[in-house]
Design brief:
Bound molecules: adenosine-5'-triphosphate, magnesium ion
Strand content: 15-25%
Order of helices and strands: HHHEHEHEEEHEHEHEHEEHHEEH
Oligomer: single chain
GO biological process, one term: L-leucine biosynthetic process
Helix content: 40-55%
EC number: 1.1.1.85
GO molecular function, one term: NAD binding
Number of helices: 12
Subunit structure: Homodimer.
Distance between the termini: 24 Å
Pathway: Amino-acid biosynthesis; L-leucine biosynthesis; L-leucine from 3-methyl-2-oxobutanoate: step 3/4
Radius of gyration: 20 Å
Strand order of the largest sheet: 1-10-9-2-3-8-6-7
Length: 349
Amino acid sequence: MPGDGIGPEIVAEALKVLERVGEIGGLDLEIEQGLIGGAAHDAAGHPYPEATREAARRADAILLGAVGGPQYESLERDLRPERGLLGIRSDLGLFANLRPAILYPQLASASTLKPEVVSGLDILIVRELTGGIYFGQPRGIEERNGERVGFNTLVYSESEIERIARVGFEAAMKRGKRLCSVDKANVLEVSELWREVVERVGKEFPEVELSHMYVDNAAMQLVRDPKQFDVMVTGNMFGDILSDAAAMLTGSIGMLPSASLNSEGVGLYEPIHGSAPDIAGQGKANPMATVLSVAMLLRHSLNRNDLAERIEAAVGRVLDQALRTPDIFGEGMKLVGTQGMGDALVAAL
Ligand code: ATP
Ligand code: MG
């Protein structure tokens, strides 16, 4: 689902990579195209049309570019491109959002932090995506005691906490076996329950070293010494904020993938960046975040870690060749466009 803005450009390159790696690995791929976001609104009158919904339900995995753009901002709320994304997330029950933040050594100078603080950074934030304060009831703006008040509700059930905690522990098992659960248990009852349930799930994973951190401290520690973390697991709003902060540690929005998974292992894979309307159609967007999303797709939905690693190695090799799109360009590097980068990745594979 290419979507809007640079979406079609970067997804085209990611599909070239997927097809090449499919040939290498003997994957029997069947690829369908789906409309989503503004592009779907323009063509079908809705950001998440019925045909897209049906295609999504048939799929083992979904690769998405990006949605949105200034031309859609005047649409009524329910027809905006972002609604397409919310629609597919809730439709497929994509409750677990995985956001790796990896700093490629070749790009160390792009970070705003000192090289020794971030070099070799490789952390994973697991964010709960379908619950918490963004979805809790009641919510609204109403008149109380002669003035208006706005309110939302932060609510998590035991089963919601349990399943996201399990994703966190399972991810930690495949990595450095350390999990940090982030909450605000000194202030919030919901966090007290969160901590209790995470502890309980932790008993099933005795090999994983579990720690807890308050979200304010976690924000500070993430900037002070991010390499102390392996996997972090947290709720929807805390995860929203922490994962953007973690992304900036790596300095390159065009390099970071994400996965959103449901309990059947079906996933939606997309770059963390948006539709970048300012550079759309110019052939200069960095396709690597989308290509690395393909790697996550192979790992988490198609169970082909071997092919995911091949793609990640190809990204490293192309960076070693000094090829750079404008967003990561620097002195002494060779400038390439979106297609040039895609071709180089296919050649590296
Ligand atoms: P959204 O609200 O959809 O998250 P946003 O307003 O946060 O979008 P982006 O679309 O992510 O913003 O763009 C932020 C900046 O990063 C823009 O200047 C954009 O050109 C740049 N950018 C985003 N993605 C890429 C990419 N793949 N390659 C190069 N530059 C990018
Ligand atoms: Mg954004």
